[in-house]
Amino acid sequence: MEDFTAHNAPRATPYVPLVAGSLARSLACATCYPIELAKTRMQAFKETQVGKKPPGVFRTLLGVLSSVNGTNNSQNRLQGYRVLWTGMGAQLARDVPFSAICWSTLEPIRRRLLNLVGEESNVVAVLGANFSAGFVAGSLAAAATCPLDVAKTRRQIEKDPMRALGMTTRQTLMEVWRDGGIKGLFTGVGPRVGRAGPSVGIVVSFYEVVKYVLHQRFETSS
């Protein structure tokens, strides 16, 4: 995308990380969403009975389906599978802006830090620049999208399947606002930022370090 915009629309090049990050996150979210739903419900409704193993991912998802598919009608049963994607709109509303903010912030910071090192860059410099950029970008994106994370969680843990299917992200945010105001919308912002900042920093830095090492070896061998 950067090569294409560089030749055809140079002014659009700075926005490539934003678009690419948003598209990639949307695809990942739609593909893996049922697992995310199971994770949230397992955390929220964990059963602790002595001698009984808590339900895993598969049993959790079957429990979600069984609450909807109480009929033998195959058409209704097929429609009931939609419940496995309950709250995906809220997650997209959270993850797409998260990726857009994260990557559009990360790229300029990373390039500026690497430019400071210049041609003398080594593994430590690449690791430090990418981790620092990822940490800052991930923290900012996580803080900015915290209200959407709250809405996503509220929709995923809704026990009434019919209400869950009818809920919208806007309605959920309004309910949270009425119940707790700004404080309610940013519930858990500390742990969210504390996880996202290091997580993005580690992923980006190790990816770039491996790429740098492989590139150096390829140049040496040739």
From TrEMBL:
- SUPFAM superfamilies, per this entry? Mitochondrial carrier
Q: What is its main location?
A: mitochondrion
Q: Which GO terms describe its cellular component?
A: mitochondrial inner membrane
Write down the InterPro entries for this protein, in alphabetical order. Answer: MCP_dom_sf, MCP_transmembrane, Mtm1-like
Specify the protein's topology with respect to the membrane: Multi-pass membrane protein
Compartment(s) of residence: Mitochondrion inner membrane
Q: Which GO terms describe its biological process?
A: mitochondrial transmembrane transport
Q: Which UniProt keywords apply?
A: Membrane, Mitochondrion, Mitochondrion inner membrane, Repeat, Transmembrane, Transmembrane helix, Transport
Domain of life, per UniProt, equals Eukaryota
Solcar repeat locations = 12-112, 125-213
Per the record, the similarity remark reads:
Belongs to the mitochondrial carrier (TC 2.A.29) family.
What's the protein called, per UniProt?
A: Mitochondrial carrier protein
